[in-house]
């Protein structure tokens, strides 16, 4: 039995009222149970900004749920292509391997380096927008936000046009496999698409080794080296899988939530229309003000037992660093319940910290910034046409339907 600092509060991330607005709940937990024993997940949730920021840096908490044991022999035998795509994933690498790979690839994912890909991002977003009606009601999630991120990644990797459809199918399957609690049958149903997509990825890697391209992310990854140490083909495959998983869902939900909050705060929408350069600031403020997590937060696992503020953390247990609550903590900003796209908050724990800072954070911001700017430019008139409809994803408060009425007039 986990130690619980209170028996009165219950954390239920699937309560419809919580899904619609989790922030009053977060406030109660910050005040009454800042470190909460969550029986359902057999771990603890940390709600206060000061604790989240301290623990996100704590080396006793790691990202690997297996604590180094890797994938089981049964999974390797049943789904070798899936394991090959994920076994060198930055999320599960041991610290020494993680540090080595991050050192090689981090320089390729900074804001300045990714600027070379902006023209293709802009072009893909424009193509998606041109297929939307000039006026009427559209679903921001399904009609717009969901339709560009994987295409951007395919373009950055220069996936051949004839293979793009199967690459996107693989991407969709990889994203689906992170859904916890999948039945064995459903999990297995995604494997054929992953196997076909892996064949494409391997062929593209082999071709790019022989025929490097300019301004091509995969060419840069292949060329990345330090003292003659290069990425293996297996590491390249897993990096591509990680880029797909980490760089797609985040961008889709960030785009959807940003448009929703701007429509809920028309004075902020007016500010952004007056100064489109504030788009990136609007995205960061959306992540601070109303992020799309289900409520657990960044998941870490206890590698070395320790106590924190009187609570014992045991080896193997998960610790959920609730960044959504932390970013609405008055200790972080003085007016946390105000949505202000001109806010400058500096460091934010949303994308992680230090060696586990999200590798695709700059890419997600680049994509969503272009999407937001072009969406507002295409539609001078936008208004909510109904309330958001939330899905049942166990990790995200995913909006499956955000109806808005738009017009090019």
TrEMBL record:
Keywords: Heme, Iron, Metal-binding, Monooxygenase, Oxidoreductase. Pfam families: p450. InterPro entries: Cyt_P450, Cyt_P450_B, Cyt_P450_CS, Cyt_P450_sf. SUPFAM superfamilies: Cytochrome P450 (SSF48264). PANTHER family: CYTOCHROME P450 YJIB-RELATED, P450, PUTATIVE (EUROFUNG)-RELATED. Belongs to the cytochrome P450 family. This is Cytochrome P450. The lineage of its organism: Bacteria, Pseudomonadati, Myxococcota, Polyangia, Nannocystales.
């Amino acid at each position: 039995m986990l130690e619980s600092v209170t028996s009165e509060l219950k954390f239920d991330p699937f309560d419809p009222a919580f899904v619609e607005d989790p922030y009053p709940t977060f406030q109660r937990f910050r005040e009454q149970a800042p470190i909460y024993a969550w029986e359902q997940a057999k771990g603890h949730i940390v709600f206060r900004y000061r604790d989240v920021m301290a623990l996100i840096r704590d080396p006793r908490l790691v990202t690997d749920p297996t604590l180094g044991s890797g994938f089981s022999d049964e999974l390797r035998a049943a789904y070798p292509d899936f394991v090959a795509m994920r076994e060198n994933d930055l999320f599960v690498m041991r610290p020494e391997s993680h540090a080595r790979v991050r050192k090689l690839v981090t320089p390729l994912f900074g804001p300045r380096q990714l600027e070379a890909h902006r023209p293709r991002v802009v072009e893909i977003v424009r193509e998606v927008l041109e297929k939307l009606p000039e006026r009427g009601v559209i679903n921001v999630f399904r009609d717009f936000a969901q339709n560009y991120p994987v295409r951007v990644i395919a373009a950055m990797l220069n996936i051949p046009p004839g293979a793009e459809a199967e690459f996107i199918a693989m991407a969709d399957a990889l994203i689906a496999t992170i859904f916890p609690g999948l039945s064995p049958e459903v999990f297995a149903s995604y494997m054929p698409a992953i196997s076909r997509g892996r064949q494409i990825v391997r062929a593209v890697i082999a071709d790019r080794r022989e025929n490097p391209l300019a301004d091509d992310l995969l060419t840069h990854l292949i060329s990345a080296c330090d003292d003659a140490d290069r990425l293996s083909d297996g590491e390249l495959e897993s990096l591509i899988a990680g880029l797909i998983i980490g760089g797609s869902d985040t961008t889709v939900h960030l785009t959807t939530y940003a448009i929703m909050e701007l429509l809920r705060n028309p004075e902020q929408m007016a500010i952004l229309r007056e100064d489109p350069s504030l788009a990136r600031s609007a995205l960061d403020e959306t992540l601070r003000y109303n992020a799309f997590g289900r409520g657990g937060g960044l998941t870490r696992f206890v590698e070395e037992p320790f106590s924190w503020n009187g609570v014992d953390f045991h080896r193997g247990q998960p610790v959920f660093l609730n960044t959504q609550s932390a970013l609405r903590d008055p200790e972080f900003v003085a007016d946390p319940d105000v949505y202000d796209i001109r806010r400058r908050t500096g460091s934010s724990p949303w994308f992680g910290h230090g060696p586990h800072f999200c590798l695709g954070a700059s890419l997600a911001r680049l994509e969503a910034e272009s999407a937001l700017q072009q969406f507002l430019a295409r539609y001078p008139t936008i208004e909510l046409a109904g309330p958001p409809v939330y899905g049942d994803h166990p990790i995200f408060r995913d909006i499956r339907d955000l109806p808005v009425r738009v017009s090019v007039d």
